[in-house]
Design brief:
This protein is an alpha/beta fold. The chain folds into two domains: about 50-170 and about 300-380, Rossmann fold (3-Layer(aba) Sandwich); about 175-295, Rossmann fold, CATH 3.40.50. Helices cover about 45% and strands about 20% of the residues.
Length: about 425
């Protein structure tokens, strides 16, 4: 009897072991199935990603430079449509755009750029409206080895002292502005005062203008810088009056401009001629007292004479209630065309190291005409315009009227990297 129960106990243990093994086997199969399913999903996701080009655009969509950011946004979207013939595809790959607002704050720009690179996995960066924002982001393009198209920031240091090989700029730089401005007013014995905002845009603009003007024989008799957020520029302008220049050359950006105070102080009646770059339309609306002023323009929609600009003006009017493209619209357009042109050359390969040699020396057609990325510093050489502000029937602000187009060779800036 004792043997019987012993045998029964052993058989029971064997049965339990077999049951346990039979339960383990389906569990292992289920885990393997889940792993295979997950791997399959990852593969599908990878395949999908390789069929999409992601572009992350940083712009001031709120804040002091909001109008600049929104002009860039409209231009970029129209530029992608134009360059891809409406397909939003290049080399068989869809183009997806992710927009981020920098709020015109460098620390926010860095946060948003990091998010675009790490979370969104973008292949390109574009931006930004502010030189300060852009300078803060440049090292990330190099760290992640992604091409960054700089638009519309103009500080010389972007393609100068802070340059890295992943940076390409469709925006003009301060030196290009300066060479165009100097050609308009500088000469042997001419006395010039300058007035600019107290940050990198203003410093670089004045520095470049001073170099160009002095080469032409002019003397800089005063340099005044003001807080860009200030509302009273009287003390700065009084110092300029005391210096008795022949010209006051003004470098400015943003809605908070000094034009009304310049008019109130009647500088022109004191024998001081005003010269500047023709700004965006909002700023032109405050420049009524400066009719007759000669200076330069980066862009006004009636200045370029080419098919790309004709398309931009027509489409912009059709889509935005008759509004014409403004100062920074063609820049956004040009940045989009540059990306599509580069991807056509690489057959859709968005790898930064692959693109660099393809983009160096690359020419592409924009609303301003032909742009070319200079090999040495990746600055786009481009046309500029010598203009005079005139009254035009039906327009409620002084209009930049073409004196002559300045060639890319005439305004080619020095290589500073």
């Amino acid at each position: 009897m004792r043997k019987f129960w012993s045998l029964f106990f052993i058989m029971g243990c064997v049965l339990l072991f077999l049951v346990a093994c039979s339960e383990d086997e389906p569990a292992t199969t289920k885990e393997d199935s889940q792993t295979e399913e997950k791997t399959s999903e990852q593969t599908a996701e990878t395949t999908e990603q390789t069929g999409t080009i992601k572009v992350g655009v940083l712009a001031s969509l709120t804040g002091a430079l909001e109008s600049y950011g929104k002009q860039t946004q409209k231009g970029f979207e129209l530029g992608l449509e134009y360059a891809t013939d409406g397909t939003m595809e290049v080399a068989g790959k869809k183009i997806e755009v992710v927009w981020e607002d920098t709020e015109t704050k460098p620390e926010v720009a860095v946060q948003k750029a990091t998010k675009l690179l790490e979370d969104d996995g973008v292949d390109f960066l574009v931006g930004s409206s502010s030189s300060g924002d852009t300078l803060a982001v440049l090292p990330l393009a190099e760290e992640y080895e992604k091409i960054m198209i700089v638009e519309p920031a103009v500080a010389d240091s972007i393609t100068g002292s802070e340059f890295n090989p992943y940076i390409f700029r469709t925006a003009r730089n301060s030196s290009q502005d300066a060479y165009a401005a100097a050609a308009a007013i500088a000469g042997e014995g001419v006395k010039i005062a300058t007035f600019a905002p107290d940050y990198s845009f203003g410093w670089d603009g004045v520095s470049a203008f001073k170099t160009a003007a002095e080469k032409l024989g002019a003397e800089i008799v005063a340099e005044e810088y003001a807080d860009p957020a200030a509302t009273d520029f009287t003390s700065n302008l009084q110092k300029i009056v005391e210096a008795k220049p022949d010209y006051l050359f003004v470098v400015w950006a943003g809605a908070n401009s000094p034009w009304n105070q310049i008019a109130d102080l009647k500088l022109q009646e004191k024998g001081i001629k005003i010269s500047t770059g023709a700004p965006d339309i909002v700023a032109l609306q405050m420049m009524g007292p400066l009719v007759g002023m000669e200076g330069f323009s980066v862009y006004y929609h009636t200045l370029p004479n080419n098919e790309v600009n004709d398309w931009l003006v027509e489409e912009h009017k059709a889509r935005f209630n008759g509004e014409v493209p403004d100062l920074f619209t063609p820049g956004g357009f040009s940045a989009a065309v540059a990306i599509v042109t580069a991807l056509e050359k690489s057959e859709g390969d968005a790898d930064g190291n692959t693109l660099i040699p393809l983009m160096e020396g690359m020419s592409f057609e924009t609303p301003k005409g032909t742009m070319t990325f200079r090999k040495e510093d990746h600055q786009a050489l481009q046309p500029m315009y010598s203009v005079r502000l005139e009254k035009v029937d039906g327009v409620d602000y002084p209009v930049p009227v073409l004196i002559r187009e300045l060639t890319p060779e005439e305004t080619e800036p020095p290589i500073m990297n």
